[in-house]
Automatic annotation (TrEMBL):
InterPro entries, per the entry: Aminotransferase_I/II_large (IPR004839), AON_synthase_class-II (IPR050087), CRIB_dom (IPR000095), CRIB_dom_sf (IPR036936), PyrdxlP-dep_Trfase (IPR015424), PyrdxlP-dep_Trfase_major (IPR015421)
E.C. number(s) listed in UniProt: 2.3.1.50
Transmembrane residue ranges: none
Protein name: Serine palmitoyltransferase 1
A GO molecular-function descriptor: pyridoxal phosphate binding
A Pfam family annotated for this UniProt entry: Aminotran_1_2
GO cellular component terms attached to this protein's record: endoplasmic reticulum; membrane
Gene this chain is encoded by: SPTLC1
GO biological process: ceramide biosynthetic process; sphingosine biosynthetic process
Position of the signal peptide: none
Top-level EC class: transferase
Catalytic activity: octadecanoyl-CoA + L-serine + H(+) = 3-oxoeicosasphinganine + CO2 + CoA; dodecanoyl-CoA + L-serine + H(+) = 3-oxotetradecasphinganine + CO2 + CoA; tetradecanoyl-CoA + L-serine + H(+) = 3-oxohexadecasphinganine + CO2 + CoA; L-serine + hexadecanoyl-CoA + H(+) = 3-oxosphinganine + CO2 + CoA
Length: 488
């Protein structure tokens, strides 16, 4: 005899071998203990049912059950039987090692090195020591050299006005701010610098960061998120690469300065999403990184937009560091107000880093004053860039990479020696040859395992307004001499 409890007559139903109530009613005889009125149908009622199930009814119910259900129940029953009748076992106890066995194991053990083996000629183990600030004349390993290695395009690093402004700010504010901009790290000098930068770049607003590398690396993930598509020049700098990595966006690389290749990618994307057009046509945003062009290109040093006569309103965001031209540290972004305001809440380097030390902000403001008061400085720099670019042409074994108006040029081998390591060693001999003769150069360094598109090894040549024509000619002549001596 089987008893079932139910909550209501309407919900009453008993599944026997997963069959509906009507099947149960066919195989079971139900005898109610009390009568149920029709008015009680659907009302909550507690009652007990008694069912008499015969063996024939059980077999007919099993025959009408689905095959997969019977197989599953059979497997479960067999598994339960196996668990009930299987023998228990004990874990084998470990025997203690003898003293002799322990000593043998200790002698056989060879520890892994704490750090991987490093060759003796690794650059980190053979560094040059610079004494004093990296100005026009630099002291390397006790020897005075003309500096063609440091980014100091406008020669403001040792400017007395800039140093005086930094010293006055140091006395007034102290060394640092000890807090991010969003808390207690905003000083009046920060707001003044942002206002001056926006005015200089002729944009609505500007925002400054305390570290140049973090500027574009924070600006990109502030706007681009997972699921967005970003079209990037394959020669983009490492800071841009880190920003793209942090954004987790879909990255599409186009060939360096190849607009036809960019349009090819845009047309491919257009087939997938008709909303994308070239800028206004394809509905994309343009972010411009100008760390090497701000304070260099244009009649007043405003960068690429001024140099090529582009309306700055057509550019959504401009980013640059203040370390190459403003003789300071940090970086800035400028553009429309709503774009800059978004960074104040979403720029990681702005929200979570201590703000720029006031003395560095004061130095940058004074550098801007000098740039505005002396616009001829940009024409002077450009003339010197064109002079050395022309002088470096035709060096046997080396080729010049860079525009004639660029203050940063690269000298690459015309033909590789067969491996990157050998190319680096060969170029280092050229650099050492020049340094022994009083010209300080440097090789371009990269994080080779992390670079998206690793450039070939090269010697970097940096031009500043402080270098005289005679010094430029001397550097070009010495490079030709070094190439002939080392490469040929």
């Amino acid at each position: 005899m089987i008893q079932f409890m139910a909550c209501s007559y309407q919900d009453f139903g008993v599944r026997f071998l997963n069959e509906p109530v009507r099947s149960f009613q066919k195989v079971c005889t139900v005898k109610r203990r009390r009568r149920i009125d029709r008015s009680m149908i659907g009302e909550p009622t507690n009652f007990v049912h008694t069912a008499h199930v015969g063996s024939g009814d059980l077999f007919s119910g099993m025959n009408s059950a689905p095959a997969y259900h019977l197989i599953l129940e059979g497997i479960l029953i067999l598994w339960i039987i196996r668990l009930l009748f299987s023998k228990t076992y004990k874990l084998q106890e470990r025997s203690d090692l003898t003293l002799k066995e322990k000593e043998e194991l200790i002698e056989e053990w060879q520890p892994e090195p704490l750090v991987p083996p490093v060759p003796k000629d690794h650059p980190a183990l053979n560094y040059n020591i610079v004494s004093g600030p990296p100005t026009h004349i630099i002291t390397v390993n006790g020897k005075e050299c003309i500096n063609f290695a440091s980014f100091n395009f406008l020669g403001l690093l040792n400017n007395e006005k800039v140093k005086s402004a930094a010293q006055a700010s140091l006395k007034k504010y102290g060394v640092g701010t000890c807090g991010p901009r969003g808390f207690y790290g905003t000083f009046d000098v920060h707001l003044e610098l942002e206002e001056r930068l926006a005015k200089f770049m002729r944009t609505e607003e500007a925002i400054i960061y305390s570290y140049g590398f973090a500027t574009i690396a924070s600006a990109i993930p502030a706007y681009s998120k997972r699921g967005d598509i970003v079209f990037v020049d394959e020669a983009a700098c490492f800071a841009i690469q880190k920003g793209l990595q942090a954004s987790r966006s879909n990255i599409k690389l186009f060939k360096h300065n190849d607009m036809a290749d960019l349009e090819r990618l845009l047309k491919e994307q257009e087939t997938e999403d008709q909303k994308i057009k070239l800028k206004y046509k394809y509905k994309v945003r343009i972010f411009l990184e100008e760390s090497l062009s701000f304070g260099v290109l244009g009649e007043h040093g405003r960068g690429i937009t001024e140099h090529f006569g582009i309306n700055i309103d057509d550019i959504d965001l401009i980013s640059a560091n203040m370390e190459n031209s403003l003789a300071s540290i940090g970086g800035f972004c400028c553009g429309r107000s709503f774009i800059i305001d978004h960074q104040r809440l979403s720029g990681q380097g702005y929200c979570f880093s201590a703000s720029l030390p006031p003395l560095l902000a004061a130095a940058a403001i004074e550098a801007l004053n000098i740039m505005e008061d002396n616009p001829d400085i940009f024409q002077t720099l450009r003339a010197k860039c064109e002079r050395i670019h022309k002088a470096l042409q035709g060096i046997s074994g080396l080729k010049v990479v860079g525009e004639s108006f660029s203050p940063a040029l690269h000298l690459q081998l015309e033909e590789s020696c067969g491996s990157r390591e050998n190319d680096v060693k060969l170029l280092k001999r050229v650099v050492d040859y020049c340094m022994n003769s009083g010209i300080a150069l440097t090789q371009a360094r990269y994080l080779e395992k992390e670079e998206k598109c690793l450039p070939p090894p090269s010697i970097r040549v940096v031009i500043t307004v402080e270098q005289t024509e005679q010094e430029l000619d001397k550097a070009a002549s010495l490079l030709k001499e070094a190439a002939q001596s080392v490469l040929n």
